[in-house]
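Hello Y.,

Per our agreement to keep a running log of every chain we model this quarter, I'm adding this entry. I've kept the format consistent with earlier entries: sequence first, then predicted structure.
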Amino acid sequence: MAATGGQPERWQLNLTPGVTETAQRAYDMHMWMLWICVVIGVIVFGAMAVAIFRFRKSKGAVADKTFVHSTKLEVLWTAIPTLILVVMAVPATIKTIDAHDTRGHEMTVKIIGQQWLWTYEYVGEGVRFSSRLDRESERIRQSGRVPGLDEHGAYLLDVDRPLVLPTDTKIRFILTADDVIHAWWVPALGWKSDAIPGIINEQWTKIYEPGIFRGQCAELCGKDHGFMPIVVEAVPREEFQARLAAMRAENETTARTVATAPAAAVPQI
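Predicted structure for the entry above:
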């Protein structure tokens, strides 16, 4: 069953094509490699079937002892697999290198993994916020019961504040962590990257379709590892600029409120 909108579906058998160039490349490479393996499998197992049934002892077949020691044959069945591996490796290497090439990006988002939430910063825009498991999922989780799909369709996969990104924009991500190793993973974007304390990793994406895309931390990072989901909301550029301005105004208001709040009284000893 094919997935729609870059999202996985129940009983889906194949990879998700995703909504980015990186995801589509990974999907195309997967399909290409799959068909190469299918062709190889048909040839190899076909030859085995023919050899087993046509040249069996009950039909009076006599083993050819010179066949397995043929120098030409050994060179042939060594050279062909090597050539196949080279043909498969070249495009895979090119696509892997390109997946880490952030040149030409139009904006930068900093991602910080923490136990057990994500902090996002639109670099140079004065906007920084944290994103954690939504309160309804947290309430149900703490109750100890298993909810039905009609009660919370995105149970443990929803957050209080999603990461809003523009479509048709090359976005550079820089990833790190405050405490332990985390991994930021949204399957629809086509890549996963570790967030490691003291190290900066880079990735990029360019989302073609508006929508909401979900993921999770993919590195065992502690007791609440399973409760730090990721939600990316992709919107058109114009809407993103409006949302960004609103977030900037909210941050500025919060900063002014904190700056003008009276200091807590120091108790006299």
